[in-house]
Amino acid sequence: MKLVKIKRLKGEVFKLIPTTERYYVSNQGRALKTIKDKDTEATLEHLCKITKSKNKTGKYYSDIRIKQIGSNDAVIVRLTRAIAKTFLDKTRFIL
Question: Per-residue confidence at 31, pLDDT binned at 50, 70, 90?
Answer without folding.
Answer: very high
